[in-house]
């Protein structure tokens, strides 16, 4: 598989080692064409300094904010602001927790092109996914 198709995710659910280490590893991965993303944005350790150093290709907003966000003004505002942050990095947003057409429509109206949730598919085993697309 070409390295350009790989996205390595850094989760906000745990602390990061020294920022210089994160930056060094990110530089090596980017040099080989690997893209980087931050996962679970908003529900753990804030990695804003690391985001500035890593310059991620993707920011995955936690399902905590995505699920039924169209009905929650606070979550909508958080998503709007994180989408603006992603745009400033030239990154894409992935909205987790898309369970309904209404949430998918909201994400699309925000210009969010990528989503994850039961609206698209239930979790599947790799073998099941491969058999569907052969």
Can you tell me about this structure?
The chain is an alpha/beta fold and 134 residues long. It has one domain: EAL domain (TIM Barrel). It is 42% helix and 18% strand. The chain has 6 helices and 5 strands. The protein has helices at residues 19-31, 48-54, 63-66, 73-88, 101-109, 126-132, and strands at residues 7-11, 35-41, 58-61, 92-96, 114-116. Strands 1-2-3-4-5 form a 5-stranded parallel beta sheet. Helix 1 (19-31) packs parallel to helix 2. It is globular. The chain starts with 6 loop residues before the first strand and ends with a helix. The mean pLDDT is 89.
> How big a fraction of the residues is strand?
15-25%
Number of helices: 6
Apparent shape: globular
The CATH architecture category equals Alpha-Beta Barrel
Helix-strand sequence: EHEHEHHEHEH
Largest sheet data: 5 strands, parallel
Number of strands: 5
Strand order of the largest sheet: 1-2-3-4-5
CATH topology: TIM Barrel
- Overall average pLDDT: 89
Total domain modules? 1
Q: Distance N terminus to C terminus?
A: 17 Å
So, the CATH homologous superfamily? EAL domain
Unreliable runs, pLDDT <50, ≥5 residues?
A: none
Tell me the radius of gyration. 16 Å
Helix content: 40-55%
Quick rundown:
The chain has 6 helices and 5 strands; from the N terminus they run βαβαβααβαβα.
